[in-house]
Every structure is written in structure tokens, then in C-alpha cells.
Amino acid sequence: MPPQPLLLPFTLLLLAPIPSALGLAAPKPTAPMKYEYQPHAKQYEMRVTSLHRYAVKGLSGDNLQSATLESGEGTFEDDRRFALLYATSGERFDDEDPEWLHKVSILLWWCLIVIMTALCIYIGPLRIAIATLVTNPSSQDNFLCAFTAPELLATLDTEYRIERNNIGDAKRLLTVWKRELGRSSAPLLGPTDLSSASGREEVSQFFTELSGRQVQCVVANKGANDKVSGRHTHQFGNTSSGVKNNDGNTRTIHIVNENTVRQFSEAVYGEDTAKRLSCTRFRPNVIVNGLEPWAEFDLIGKTVEVVPRSDDGDVNNDVPRLRFRIVSRTVRCAGVGVDPLHPELGAIDIPDLLVKHFPEHGPYLGVYACLEDPECIGGTISVGDTFRVVER
Q1: Residue 345: count of CB within 10 angstroms of its CB
Q2: Per residue in 311-335, pLDDT tens?
Q3: How far apart are CA 280 and CA 56, in angstroms?
Q4: What distance in Å separates the CA atoms of residue 217 and residue 193, rounded to the nearest whole number?
Q5: Are 322 and 306 a contacting pair, CB within 8 Å?
């Protein structure tokens, strides 16, 4: 045991690796790589192979054939519009003035560690409290999501659909099944209308009982009678990329390159065809192919345009084209350690494996993109469309 005056720096030194393990700080690559857009050497045109929406942060996504972005939306309709917030979270969410929240309460977590470590110099029993906090950081989680409860949520299969009537009113229906029993079994929950306060309360109660912690289903900018309607203005994103790179706008889309995932999977599992990393594990909105592995990182700062295709495969020039600005790489965390489609494969450390096999890229896979003009007239992206770099 070090002398009492050295306890604080000694303890902080021991705790230094913990933020990385929790996904609060990314492990640093050993050989950082500089990315450069090389249109004469590489092919950057990408074909959209699948589209996905995650209406409730942390729950399984819905496959889409197309997604229409209305003026002022900024992302897929209702993507990550709802979240399951722990009532014991150290953060408060103001639905009238929403702000981006991390998956865990970073400030509270570190403040408690520093305070209790200092007190331990004089009060020995509080060392137990430090050990409890360090070994059970879930006490500082903000959300019930794939990062904080991957094994639990992987046992669930969910569907979210929007049903509109003739006058434009919409029901936002969430249904939950036990994954191993399939959708032909009786649902555990729903269909439940998340657009209503009573529906969100039902969802809150369900996940409270399931997780053993008080959970509240939250959403931003509710209308009259707490009913959800109108524009989707706040996204419960996994990172602060939108906030940092889009003038405070939280709304982004997440793009994953099939060929990057394939190369990563081969590095991890080799010739074992029974084990493969799926693109959906990484919770993308858009999956693309046609790019070399990791070439998507060359596009940071570039603008890509959606080139729609008509039914006969020709380019359709009569449809408004959406443009997205690629703003950052996606740092990975423990939340993608369990594949919700194949939970039987168990958990793996994705950030550590990325750094191990691809140190030049570090713990990154995927890119975030923001709608270049959130107030544009809107447009549609569909499976089979193409992303093309806008040359300027």
C-alpha cells in the first residue's frame, strides 16, 4: 500500500485505463494514418445495399427500402427519436430544450471518483465505495441501450412502424418480441403507440421491469397533450459528431462500408465461415458497397450526392437529390460487442480488435454524415441508389 500522501495520484494512475474500457475515451492507434481523397487512384462511387432506422435508441433497427427526408428533418424519419433514460441518471433531459447526452454521465462519474479518492486519505472504509463505483460503473449510465445492456437487449426483437390516417395524424407503433421465439409468437409488448404519453408510459414500465432499474421513455419537442407530432428535431445519437460538426444539430446518418466490415471480419475470424461480423452489428443507417476497404475515411470533409435510379436502372434526373457532408469517422465502443442477430456468438471487444488488426486506423469503423442543407426541400434515398462525390 503506498503512503497516504501518494494515494490520490496512485489511485488516479490505476484508474486511467477505465475510460477507454467504458468507451469514454478511445484507445489510440499506434500508427495514425493520414487520409487523402484520391479520385484518380480510387473508386469512390458507392451503391446503397440496405437502409436501416433505429426509432428507439438501443433497440433493434427496421429495414427500409427507402427513406424520405422532409425539409427540416436532417435524418431518417424518427431515427433515434426516442430513448430509454434511466431515472437515476446523473443527467437531466429537458424535452423543450434538448441537448445531446453521452451514454454515461462522464462528469458525475469522474467527480465521484476524485472526491471519494480524496476522502479515502482520511476515511479508510470509503475505499469500498470506490471499488464499488469502479467495478459497477452502470450506476452512472444515462440510457438503457446497447452500450449499457448489450446482452439483455440482444434477447429482444423489435419493430417500429408509422401508420398515418387520411388527415395526416400518425401512430408510432412499437412491438417487442422475444428474439428466440420469433415474430410468430405473442409479443412481449405492443403494438404500443409511442406518439402518446400513455404509450410511452407503457414502454417505460415494460423496460423498468425487464431491466430492474427505473426507465423513462423520453422524446424531444412534444406537442399538445404530450403527443409526438411534427418535425424530428432531436436525435439521441451515439456520439456528439452532429453537435460538433453541424452547428449544434444532433441529427446525422451513419454509413458503413461492406468491404471494410468484410476485411475486419476476416482478420478476426480467418477462415471460420460460421463466424462473421455483420454490418448491422454496427447500427448503420446506410450500408454501401463498391468502395475499397477503409476508403470511406478518405471522404471526411467531402460532400456526396444521392443519385436515384429509376425502375429500369437508368439515372433519374427528375428527382431532387439529397446531399450529405461526411463529417467524421465513427469511434466504436462496447455497445457493438454483441451481435443482436447472433447473440449466441458471445461478446467480443470490437475497439480492441480494430486497434490490434488495423492500428493504422485505430478504433474506428464507419462514418457520420450530415445533410448538407437541413432546410432543403427534401428528397428520398432508396436501396439501389448511388452515392457520388460532388467535385468542387
Answers
A1: 15
A2: 555 555 665 689 999 999 999 987 7
A3: 16
A4: 12
A5: yes
Tell me, what's the pLDDT at 116?
45
* Rounded Cα–Cα distance for residues 230 and 170 (Å): 10
Sign of the C-alpha dihedral computed for residues 194, 197, 199 and 203 taken in this order: positive
C-alpha cell at 22: 467504458
* Structure confidence at residue 314 (pLDDT): 59
**Strands annotated E in the chain:** 46-53, 62-64, 66-69, 82-86, 156-164, 170-178, 189-193, 215-219, 253-257, 286-289, 303-307, 323-331, 364-371, 379-382, 386-389
Question: Residue 83's beta-bridge partner residues?
Answer: 218
Task: Report CA dihedral (17, 22, 24, 27) to the nearest 10 degrees.
Answer: 50
How far is 161 from 151, CA to CA, in rounded Å? 24
Report residue 361 CA to chain centroid gap.
20
Strand extents, DSSP E, 322-361? 323-331
Q: Of 210, 206, 215, 211, which Cα lies nearest the Cα of 174?
A: 206
Does the pLDDT of residue 198 top 60, yes or no?
A: yes
- The reply to whether the predicted model has a pTM over 0.90 is no
Cα 388 to chain centroid distance, Å, stands at 24
pLDDT per position as a tens digit, 342-381: 777 788 999 999 999 999 999 999 999 988 876 666 789 9
pLDDT digits (tens, 9 = 90+) for 109-160: 444 444 444 544 444 444 434 333 333 444 456 776 666 777 888 889 999 9
Pairing of strands 46-53, 62-64: antiparallel
Q: Which candidate, 337, 324, 350, 307, places its Cα nearest to that of 242?
A: 324
Pairing of strands 156-164, 323-331: unpaired
